[in-house]
């Protein structure tokens, strides 16, 4: 067991002994600043608890917090004691989640709000399941609706893997409900795109007794196969890539043909419309999902 003392303030009447057997960190802090930071600390260091009695700057009292993360508590102490030059601009997602758990535990949401807003930043294109899961849980704990919406959107559009590992790592009912909703939404969007492809091919097949749309069907099938956009492929790649690939598809042959076939009287007036519907399906899928609403979970 190692024990280090960090002077968050030069003169403090409380030394927080944070951590368990593996590593303990001692943080010299000021009880007045902690009382101002949250109602939980105001009660803990008030007259009704032993921790708040006989406090002195000459002989700081040690307060054990064995269940808390030492580095997360150190960051929190630096923020609420206004040591802004020591506070990092960014945190790794796992570190942010540890901070968020303590913020929620000690009701520090308001006093930590500016730091959290800076740390809870999700980069566009984030594609690591565990990192996004950490951001999602942190946003849920902290009630950050904007970050929650962005994390859920990234999980649906950027992630291919199942979300099972996220469920296995949490006991939060709200988070489990969120993850189940994300799986339903991802399946819904994948089915929407698959149905649009099927409708295109089904239309061409049912109106091709004369063979006039063979080149349209062949060209479309080749494009979908070469770009791995057939229905089975859609579930094997991130939806953001699927939507981008659909957006880059060139127009198949014969999509400008109009009227009825004189040989078999087949209706060929709609290939262009059907093709546009396929293109629209990608736009609709992208626009329909902008992330989940935290208040709706």
Keywords:
single chain, rod-shaped, 13 helices, 297 residues, 52% helix, four-stranded mixed sheet, alpha/beta
Tell me what the structure shows.
With 297 residues, the protein is α/β, with parallel strands linked by helices. It has a domain at 185-288. Helices cover 52% and strands 7% of the residues. It is built from 13 helices and 4 strands. Strands 1-3-2-4 form a 4-stranded mixed beta sheet. Helix 7 (145-158) packs across helix 9, helix 9 packs antiparallel against helix 13 and helix 12 (239-247) runs antiparallel to helix 13 (271-288). The longest helix has 34 residues, at 173-206. It starts with a strand and ends in a 9-residue tail after the last helix. The mean pLDDT is 83.
Brief sketch in words of this structure:
The model has no long low-confidence stretch (mean pLDDT 83). The protein has a domain at 185-288.
Major pleated sheet: 4 strands, mixed
Count the beta strands. 4
Report the C-alpha radius of gyration, rounded. 28 Å
Structural shape: rod-shaped
Structural class: alpha/beta
Q: Approximately how much helix is present in the residues?
A: 40-55%
End-to-end Cα distance: 42 Å
How many H/I helices? 13
Estimate the strand proportion. Answer: 5-15%
Order of helices and strands: EEEHHEHHHHHHHHHHH
Mean pLDDT: 83
């Amino acid at each position: 067991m190692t024990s280090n003392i960090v002077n968050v303030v030069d003169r403090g009447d409380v030394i927080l002994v944070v951590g368990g057997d593996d590593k303990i960190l001692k943080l010299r802090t000021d009880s007045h600043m902690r009382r101002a930071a949250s109602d939980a600390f105001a009660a803990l260091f008030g007259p009704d608890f032993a921790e708040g009695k006989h406090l002195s700057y000459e002989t700081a009292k040690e307060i054990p917090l064995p269940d808390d993360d030492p580095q997360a508590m150190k960051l929190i102490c630096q923020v609420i004691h206004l040591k802004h030059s020591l506070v990092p601009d960014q945190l790794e997602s796992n570190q942010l989640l540890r901070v968020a758990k303590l913020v929620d535990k000690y009701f520090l949401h308001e006093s930590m709000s500016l730091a959290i807003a800076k740390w809870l930043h999700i980069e566009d294109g984030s594609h690591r399941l565990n990192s996004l899961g950490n951001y999602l849980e942190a946003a849920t704990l902290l009630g950050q609706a904007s970050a929650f919406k962005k994390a859920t959107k990234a999980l649906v559009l950027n992630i291919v893997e199942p979300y099972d590992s996220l469920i296995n790592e949490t006991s939060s009912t709200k988070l489990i409900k969120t993850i189940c909703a994300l799986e339903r939404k991802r399946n819904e969007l994948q089915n929407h795109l698959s149905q649009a492809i099927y409708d295109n091919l089904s239309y061409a097949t049912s109106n091709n007794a004369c063979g006039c749309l063979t080149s349209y069907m062949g060209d479309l099938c080749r494009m979908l196969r070469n770009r791995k956009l057939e229905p089975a492929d859609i579930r094997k790649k991130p939806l953001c890539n699927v939507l981008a690939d659909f957006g880059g598809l060139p127009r198949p042959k014969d999509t400008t043909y109009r009227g009825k076939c004189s040989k078999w009287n087949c209706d060929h007036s709609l290939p262009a419309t059907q093709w546009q519907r396929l293109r629209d399906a990608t736009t609709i899928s992208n626009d329909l999902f902008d992330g989940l609403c935290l208040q709706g979970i």
